[in-house]
Amino acid sequence: MAPSISKMDLSNMRARSLMFHDVVENGDYQSSGFPGEGAHLYKLERAPFERHLAAIAAAAPSVATLPALAPNSVLLTFDDGGASFHHPIAPLLEQHGWRGHFFITTDRIGTPGFLTEAQILDLHRRGHVVGSHSCSHPTRMSALSRPELDREWRQSLARLSAILGEPVTVASVPGGFYSSQVGQSAQAAGIRALFTSEPTARISSLAGCLVLGRYSLQRGMGPEWSAGFAAGRPAQCLRQAALWKAKRIAKTLGGTAYLKLRTALLDRNSP
Length: 271
Known about the structure:
TIM Barrel; 6-stranded parallel β-sheet
């Protein structure tokens, strides 16, 4: 990433970042990424994903990648490091002339359902941005101690940098559990752009590290949602922001109890 990214004038800068995860075919949700209904909720079938991409293309003048930010840039990000990043996601993006930001849980590299080192390097060589999604994808990143946070970021960055042969300075926070200490640890580890799960287009700076929010796409959401996020339409953006704020309060007050209840409800309602 260009060093100048941390020196941008952020006063009028906005980035509408969309957060995807895996894309699967024939309902095979086990084929890519983490198992369990909590993870499967964020996985899309190929046909709906293609409709999302078409809607984004119609709603946004262009899709950018870091560090090429302009006012109201649209960025596409993908979390976890599932095997579907390499196929079908990357080829589908490339058909539109786009590149994505792919965030990798490094402890899972080379395990079933996740990218291999060779696939990660290939994505990088094709112009996609490769970043960290921590080492282990902790359940509650914000509950870790500072030494634990430092290990998650530093070891993940070291692994990815060794694969790519150059420093990796972009990351996303797993599980949406962001805190100032999470950001401070990321900045100290060398991360210069950190994506959270807060649905906002605002960009802030933490000691030279850009902090960017994202709008999340889940299974069952129609293409009007991705189009609305890409275009900055209040009907979609404000609605997700309100829901996110309510969930943040529940997460903060409930802690691990919130996660257990969520898992139980999802498992009960799974197909």
